[in-house]
Design brief:
The chain has four helices and four strands, in the order αββααββα. About 25% of the residues are buried. It is α+β, with helices and mostly antiparallel strands and about 140 residues long. The protein has a single domain, classed as 3-Layer(aba) Sandwich (NADH Oxidase), CATH 3.40.109. A four-stranded antiparallel β-sheet has the order 1-2-4-3. Helix 1 packs antiparallel against helix 3. Helix content is about 30%, strand content about 15%.
């Protein structure tokens, strides 16, 4: 795959990891099985260091990932197909949800095509507050 080509999976992972999370902890991990991208709590990496798997802050992070993926699929003209799990434990062994990611590449395969997706044009201003507008 050339640098200019972008698979739908590449875009989905990029959309997922760009989702905001409480204190920017990024408490999730992702698993691809060839059809589904599954979203899990990353217990090995963040347990005991940040919010737990059933904490509202973590669940909001999960919701942000789902929204980013939904927006991406909409922009690519695909239906957002997903399955939600009820989380009953704290081990991170069960995904919060999983969604279908199409196999293939953007039609034009160019960076211009990627930049035409509004999700990838967002920016979070993390600069100190200023009364002057951003330019």
């Amino acid at each position: 795959m050339s640098i200019q080509e972008r698979s739908y999976l590449d875009l989905a992972v990029r959309a997922a990891i760009q989702a905001p999370s409480a204190d920017n902890t990024q408490p999730l991990r992702y698993k691809w099985d060839g059809q589904y991208l599954s979203i899990f709590y990353d217990a090995r990496r963040v347990a005991g260091r940040t919010f737990g798997p059933d904490h509202p802050a973590t669940l909001l992070s999960v919701g942000c990932v789902a929204e980013n993926l939904k927006q991406l699929m909409s922009n690519l003209n695909f239906e957002f197909q997903y399955e939600i799990n009820e989380i009953t434990g704290t081990s991170g062994d069960e995904p919060y949800f999983r969604c279908v990611i199409p196999v293939g590449f953007l039609e034009d395969g160019s960076q211009t095509g990627i930049q035409s997706i509004p999700l990838f044009n967002r920016h979070t201003n993390r600069l100190p507050y200023s009364r002057e507008p951003l330019t």
